[in-house]
Amino acid sequence: MLKTLIRRELLDNLMTFRFAAAVFITLLLVVANTIVLLKDYEQRLTAYNTAVQESHEELRAEKTYSGYSGTLVVHRPPNPLSIFNLGLDKQVGNKIEVYHAFVPTIWDAEKHGADNPFLNLFTSIDIVLVFQGVLSLLALIFAYDALAGERERGTLRLVLTHPIQRGYILFAKYISAMLCLLVPLLISLLLSIILLTTSTTVALNTDDFLRIGGIVLTSLLYVSLFYLIGLCISALTRRTSTALMLCMFVWGVLVLVYPNLILTAVDIVPQPETQISVYHQIKQMWEKLDREKKQFIRNDAVLGPPSRGGEDMDAGFGLEGVEYTFWQGEDKPSILLYFHQTGLYAGKIKAESEPQVPHVQDYYGFYNRETINTVQRTWLVRKPALEAIYIQPANLGRMLLRFSPGGLYDAATEAWAGTGLEGTQDFFSTVQRYRRAVVDYFYDQKIFESRQWFAADKGTADWDTLPQFSFQRSDTGINAKRALPDMLLLLTMNVILFTVIMLIFIKSEV
Amino acid sequence: MVWDIAKRELYDNLNSLRFALATVLLLGLMLTNAVVHLREHPERVQQYRERVSGHQNHIAAHAESSLYDLAQQGPGDLYKKPSDLRFCAEGGETFMADRAVGGYHRWSTGTLKSFWILTYPSATPNRDNVRPEVTKVDWGFIIGYVLSLVALLFTFDSISGERERGTLRLTLANPIPRHTVLIGKFLGAFISVSIPFILAVLVNLLVISTSSTVHLDAEAWGRLGIIFFVAVLYTCLFLAFGLLVSARVQRSAVSLVILLLVWIVFVVFMPSTLVSIAGRSTSSGPTYDLWERSSKLHGELRRDYSPRRHKEPEGTTKRMEMDGAYVTEDAEQQEQLHEERLTRRIAEVHRARAITRISPVTIVQNLIESFAGTGFERHLQFLENVQTYVREFRTSIVDTDNADPESLHIFGVRTGMSQEPVSPEAVPKFEDTLNLSKDFNTAAMELLLLTLFVLVLLSGAYLAFVRVEV
Fold it and tell me: Which residue of B has its CA nearest to A110?
């Protein structure tokens, strides 16, 4: 019996204009956008590869170890699944310095030089966005007359004269409509995957296909939710035209208005007070280090008391043959970044300065060790402050977006694709670990107190044994774990809505 | 007769569910827009004022020291004035810098210091980069997306619905020309869409103008009038389109499906897709690393000048002239470099914007932006203002120097320039202005395009309805 019902509904749906239009529009939008997004991805990949190559060569050109500041740069590869959900993949910087004097975070990253910041003026698009808009609309178009239309035409009464349970009718309608909606979804996804696999630059592995599977599953839940919303409206209204009108307004509000409205209305501005106080705290820690450094120099028999270099001894420590000094610091109060480093590069050290060299080495051993300790202390303050100022408002915004199905869908697919906040943070925690590894390597090899730290005359820096940076996207299991809460929410909403419709439909008079 | 039909349509619509829903939706959006504007705008204005006084203090401090200091340190940062009509169009202002930077220290050797140059920093929305990306609810959004959707919902069944119910045949049995019926229907739909929109706009403006913190001047009201006119034109476009499809299609459900799908393609997805295509074709090319090129250029110049400079003994006029030439040439080169990069970036955006004009929503948003004094065209105007000001500032420096008989008139060196302090009042100050006639000029093309769209669709609807069988 159920089979007959489903077949009838399916045939009814398949032969309609809306089905043809649905398939056509989804295919058109998805294929057109896949081509565009693919090209965009390839371009970003090329930019990434060139940048990696350039940084590699730049680092090799450094002769002293201390020269790695500013030249040891790691790059964030573009995520191939950003074609499905762009998320933060383009928004966040893709180039970050690794240096022992600060802990790299998502805010310290910069964009490659070729990027045109004005192009941010235009909104970007991805396949999930297309689905979010088009499939929800199509689901409502399929649903609005499912019950109201039959009631209007009187066929519902006819069907109910047969000994069929009302639940069966509802179920048959749901199944057949979902099958119809699956057709454009799957065909368009298939085409876009074919396009992806024919491209030589995009290498999708099995894990990626699992992730895409997750995206498809989430899409299914999303479409089903909108179909049920339409069905609910259809069950509640007497006339199809009213149902249609209500559906369109519900769609407009849920997809178009709510996400933009809520984030415009609830715009959380970071509190400048905490920002300023934390920034000063960090600055004080660095000033303390500066005093300790000067104390160390003064206490040293050979280096101090200050002679030629003045109070700040880094001008040369009286080493003959110094080429130039370097100073490095960052001062960005808005992201609580502050550090201050002084030092020198020495070209050729003359023989008469030789006795001073061990003292300078000692000094650098001390200074770098204390710098790392200071960074550790500032990080303890900076990390929670950054989270309070930036992450929490962003997460609050994301939470508010989840009140619309579109927000849930977006969040879940972002988690699958690994382009969400957590997925992007993965990269930066890898960079933080890498910085730790570099520092450990410098400690192990006693590089901080070596002559090669500041002078290149007796042996130059050896970059080949430096730990290599590599970044792997998180496991599919982790992706799934991150996507699961949102998917479960979608599922629960589906179940609840189905039950509600069932109750309404069983009680309603025909 | 036209009027009778319009009135009938209007009464039909006023009692309908869609009228109530549209009113609630538009009112809610406009109210939120007004409240958010009142919350954010005073802060922006206050910040701008502080920055302007900072710029003036900067000039005063350096002018009092000496002419050389003033020329070397420059006029400080030059800030963009926030538009009072920001609630009409947010215009992606967060993605554009709110300042042009003058006067920062690049290098110094001995007594020589680099002269200030005008640079164009890019906005770094670094702190916002973890937030979810959404469109701000401004008039542009409300008109571009919501109002157009409402216009379609009001017209999709105006002809096909009557045909379904059979009343169209009845109407046409009377001796009324078909175009009268069409115009009547158009007017009826137009008025029924306008009522909720005007209501929402009035509430929005009422909230904004009654507040004591935000002030709108006469010009702003004029601009608002133009924006309203643009919104009306845009609504007409979608009404005409709705009538066209409704006249051609037998069933109203099919008509709505077609309308919505066309709408979602043209309004929601087309702009971003087109931009991606345009962006792809333009931004490929060699990487343009400004800092690398800048240091390379400066290095070449230094190698070129250094031996020649050091041949002359310190303190002679010849050495001073050489030093001055070095400094000024460096400043010119570097400034040109920054300008080149800016020009490249602007050209890219221009290309992308030209392509997106196929979508009516982009046209209307561009129009609203230019009349609200926000967005990209406004940014270009600001840059132009800055460049004019910088020329003025430089001329004033030269003039002041020429007026001093004791000066050697060698720019770029402290000893070569006038030693007298300059009165801060004599130095031109930067003030960013918005110019309505200029805005009108940039917008004229788009306005024309929009009108053309409306005319084409209206005549299309006419033809479709005249030839259709009932």
Answer: B126
pLDDT of residue A325: 61
Whether residues B345 and A116 touch (CB distance < 8 A) is answered with: yes
> So what's the pLDDT on residue B214?
82
| Rounded (5°) CA angle B18-B30-B186 | 40
Predicted local distance difference test score (pLDDT) of residue A269? 64
Q: Looking at the complex, does the CB of residue A36 fall below 8 Å from at least one CB of chain B?
A: yes
Q: Write out chain B residues lying below 8 Å of A93, CB-based.
A: 126, 129
Distance from the B288 Cα atom to the nearest Cα atom in chain A, whole angstroms: 5
Please give, rounded to a whole number of angstroms, the shortest distance from the CA of B432 to a CA of chain A: 21
Banded model confidence at residue B139, pLDDT cuts 50, 70, 90: very high
- Which segments of chain A have a pLDDT < 70? 113-115, 267-271, 301, 303-327, 347
A-chain CB neighbours of B279 within 8 Å are 40, 119, 122
For A:189-218, CB contacts with B below 8 A are: none
Is the pLDDT at B103 greater than 60? The verdict is: no
Cα angle, residue A32 at apex, residues B147 and B242 outer, rounded to 5°: 30
Is the Cβ pair A21, B261 closer than 8 Å?
yes
Are B429 and B146 spatial neighbours (Cβ–Cβ below 8 Å)?
no
- To test the contact with chain B by mutation, choose from A116, A134, A153 the residue with the greatest count of B C-beta atoms within 10 A, namely A116
Chain B CB within 8 Å of residue A154 CB: no
Tell me what the mean pLDDT of segment B146-156 comes to.
93
- Among residues B268, B40, B124, B252, the alpha carbon closest in space to that of A268 is found at B40
Give yes or no for a contact between B48 and B382, defined as CB atoms under 8 angstroms apart. no
In the numeric block, which tokens belong to residue A432?
């933080």
Instruction: Look up tokens 């180039």; give the residue.
Output: A95
Q: pLDDT band at B243, cuts 50/70/90?
A: very high
Where is A464: in which H helix or E strand? none
- If you average pLDDT over residues B412-425, what whole number do you get? 79
Residue A454 C-alpha from the chain's centroid: 38
Mean pLDDT, chain B, rounded, equals: 85
Cβ-based contacts of A256 with chain B (< 8 Å): 145-146, 149
A390 touches chain B (CB under 8 A): yes
Q: Does A117 touch chain B (CB under 8 A)?
A: yes
| Residue B110's pLDDT band (cuts 50, 70, 90) | low
pLDDT at A77: 92
Q: b/e per residue, A74-113, with b = 16+ CB within 10 A?
A: bbbebbbbbbbbbbbbbbbbbbbbbbbbbbbbbbbbebbb
Residue A91 contacts B, CB cutoff 8 Å: yes
In this predicted structure, what is the pLDDT of residue A320?
Answer: 60
For B153, the closest of A40, A118, A248 (CB atoms) is A248
Model pLDDT, residue A188: 92
Peptide bond into A305 cis (omega under 30): yes
Residue B453 has pLDDT above 80, yes or no: yes
B323: phi then psi, degrees, rounded to nearest 5: -60, -45
Q: What is the pLDDT of residues B364-376, one digit of tens each?
A: 999 999 899 888 8
* A133 in B contact zone (CB under 8 Å): yes
Token pair listed for B47: 């910040």
Cβ–Cβ gap B279/A119 under 8 Å: yes
The candidate with the shortest Cα–Cα distance to A339, out of A272, A286, A295, A280, is A286
ipTM of the complex: 0.86
Q: What value does the mean pLDDT take over residues B64-81? A: 83
Nearest CA in chain A to B29: A261
- Cβ neighbours of residue A303 under 8 Å, at least 6 residues apart? A297, A313, A317, A318, A356, A359, A360, A363
- Chain B residue with Cα closest to A47: B287
- Pick from A96, A34, A97: nearest CA to A67: A97
Q: What is the pTM of this model?
A: 0.89
